[in-house]
Amino acid sequence: MASQSTAAFTQQLGKYYVTYTGVFAAFVVLLAILEWFGVPNRVIGYLFVFFTLAVYAMIGIMSRTTQVSEYYVAGRRVPAIFNGMATGADWMSAASFVGMAGTLFLLGYDGLAWVLGWTGGYVLVSTLVAPFLRKFGAYTVPDFMSYRYGGNFARLLAVIVLVSCSFTYIVAQVYGTGIIASRFLGMQFEIAVFVGLAGILLCSMLGGMRAVTWTQIAQYIILIIAYLLPVIILSTQKFGIPLPQLTYGQAIQDIVAREQQMLQTGLATAASLKSHIVPFQTYSPLNFFGIILCMMVGTASLPHILMRYFTTPSVREARQSVAWSLFFIFLLYFTAPAYAAFSKLEVYENIIGRNLTEIRPWLYTWGELGLIQICGKPAASLDAVLAACKEIAGHPGVVRLQDFVINTDVIVLSTPEIAGLPYVISGLVAAGGLAAALSTADGLLLAIANALSHDIYYKMLDPNASTVRRLTVARILLLVVAILAAYVASTRPGDILAMVGWAFSLAMAGNFPAIVMGIWWKRTTTTAAVLGMIAGFGLCIFYLVTTRYYPQAGVNYFGMTALTNPVTGAPLVDIAKVMADPKVLADVPASGSNPLQSRVGWFGLNNINCGMLGAPLGFLVMIVVSLMGKAPSKEMQAFVDEIRKPRGRTVIEEKI
Amino acid sequence: MEQPNPERDEAYWADTSRLMWTTLGIWFFFGYVIHAFVIPLNKIVILGFPLGFYMAAQGSLIAFVVLLFWFAKSQDKIDRKHGVAEDDE
Questions:
Q1: How far is B29 from chain A (nearest CA, A)?
Q2: What average pLDDT does the segment A208-217 reach?
Q3: Mean pLDDT of all residues in chain A?
Q4: Given this structure, which CATH class describes domain A6-342+420-519?
Q5: Residue A157: which pLDDT band, with cuts at 50, 70 and 90?
Q6: Which of B39, B62, B68 sits opposite A322 (nearest CB)?
Q7: Share of chain A above pLDDT 70, in %
């Protein structure tokens, strides 16, 4: 099969994807011409979405396979640089593409905790985890747990961790595709979700990892072009230099000056204004650094990311591939703060302080969708804004900062309009957002379905299953998980978006200690690892569920206290007062209206950082219990030696 | 199957561990230590960027990317030195 050398194969792939990029560019130009000739925006939006979906589907169908190793690990011949691109697409979700810049817009410096946390984790992936798992030669992360820690009980625990951190995450991705499709195509949300689902299934169903790999690369190319192009144009318009990452320094200076000015002239109150550069206004230092740590360690524990490095031809390329992955991710993440700064400057200079009649018209498009509010009502038109502000007693007739509310998704999506670009660029951004959501959903779906088909069905239920049967089961499970995810997403669960951050903490608490100790400390025993996983993951889940859904119980029985405001140091809620109100207690577990929800905890720790409690406990249990027991067998120690050395065959060889 | 060679394995693992700790040290510095000094660093402004803000928005990210390419190269050197590297194609 791999008679071709890696270098030749890499070169050939390069040719394919350069051609593909050229065709895509030509397609964008064609649409621009169509727009110029008066083709309506909605048609252009549809053409964008259906063209890109068709391309992904075509790659997916062309990459169909009947070989188990192709299905699970793409035949282990994905060159480092291409695997890096695929990982980039796998990693960057709708939340990164659409939400990240918005978070930075709202939080200023504190939002950078997410930027740092979602990049630095790759250092841990490369030094501590990925190359060793590649040498081991597993198909899934639970495979490793089972081999190292004595069989199916450890496997089952690993599958539980995998499913609990991946499922909420995939629901959020399907939800994201629904939002983007409904916003740009005017489709009904519930229908849009199932259109997104079709796109996801076409990519992954027939070809498994192999198909997902080649489509993710195609999706990366579209998403990165779509992300960089609008802000590069905007930077060129404003500063004459097409390097937004460099020029937004000037925007930051202007923002800081304008912040002072707004405070002095009464356009903003100290309560409504968060400085763009002052740290620790939203997160206390503990929570700021906690988010960085949990996101980083979570990165090195999330199965859908780790399994991407099972597909490289060698251990050496696995390491190089991690570096390439971070490079491709970095291109987007170091641009996000530029989006935030430019948008903020636009809002501060051209909306705040303006007479209501002078508001720039790009805003009404988003106001109609309820995503921008002025004076507490959606800013759908000038009349709507005037009417809303009239109801506020003593309103001065100019927009004040406290009058203005913007949904974080708007920041990236509205940049083409702020820059006055033609609609074709907006369509491109929509296609990019869709690519980001679909590619992450593909990776997650495959991680879940593979764990169920390979680990549960093949390894635990029917080890004698034939190849055909295994692949059939894998595909059926893929379909079932996908439909389940789409169904949950179509019910618009309010909590699901908050849960994406939890996935990282859960993965950190459940997986990280067991994987790292299994590789780096030969003395780690089976009992210790199993107990450590249960203890760490259990504590993390306990903290999440208690603080979010049963905060009263947390206060009454577990000594939790109110979290505090990082600026004033005052408690976020007056627990005694809330608990004295019988109406609140009747509302258990609260449907989002419980005033204690996520506002209590230990040591002032946000529940998103529950990995900070779980992972150390996991390590502690593993060390103590290991030292109490007998050292692992000679064979097991030899096995650990074997995965530490790149040379030689993979430790386990799957039968094809 | 090659002959077991515990002495070589030990030397190899000592080098590998040293590189791991060095890499994680640099990671810790750029991931955490430098951001603890954000307030004094913000007083230095370069091209409009307060330095503390810049390090979190770009500086540390660039450091991570460079660090990873350097790590891959160094580890490969160690692998070759101890004869445990995979064959080149």
A1: 11
A2: 93
A3: 89
A4: mainly alpha
A5: very high
A6: B68
A7: 96
Q: Are the C-beta atoms of A370 and A405 separated by less than 8 Å?
A: no
Per-residue pLDDT of A587-638, as tens digits, reads: 544 445 577 878 889 999 998 999 999 999 999 999 999 999 999 999 999 9
pLDDT at A316 over 90: yes
- The model's pTM is 0.93
HSE (CB half, 13 Å, CA atoms) of A513? Answer: 31
The rounded distance, in Å, linking the Cα atoms of A97 and A413 is: 10
The answer, for A89 touching chain B at a CB cutoff of 8 Å, is no
Of B24, B45, B57, the CB nearest to A337: B57
Q: Would you list the domain boundaries of chain A?
A: 6-342+420-519, 520-644
- DSSP string for residues in B15-80: HHHHHHHHHHHHHHHHHTGGGGGHHHHTTSEETTEEHHHHIIIIIHHHHHHHHHHHHHHHHHHHHH
Distance from CA of A330 to the nearest CA of B (A): 7
Task: Please choose, from the candidates A99, A119, A235, A120, the residue with its C-alpha nearest in 3D space to the C-alpha of residue B48.
Answer: A235
In chain A, which residues have their Cβ closer than 8 Å to the Cβ of B68?
122-123, 126, 322-323, 326
**Per-residue pLDDT tens digits for A338-373:** 999 998 998 898 888 888 888 888 888 888 878 888
pLDDT digits (tens, 9 = 90+) for A241-252: 999 999 999 999
Q: Which helix (H) or strand (E) holds A377?
A: strand A377-378
Q: Please, what sign has the CA dihedral across residues A422, A427, A433, A435?
A: negative
* Residues of A with Cβ-Cβ distance to B42 under 8 angstroms: 277-279
CB-CB neighbours of A580 under 10 Å: 10
> CA B28 → CA A138, A589, B60, distances in Å?
30, 40, 10
Contacts of A277 in chain B (CB under 8 A): 42, 50, 52-53
* Record: contact B56-A6, CB cut-off 8 A: no
- In order, the DSSP letters of A58-81 are HHHHHT----HHHHHHGGG---HH
CB pairs under 8 A between A and B: 139
pLDDT band at A656 (very low <50, low <70, confident <90, very high): very low
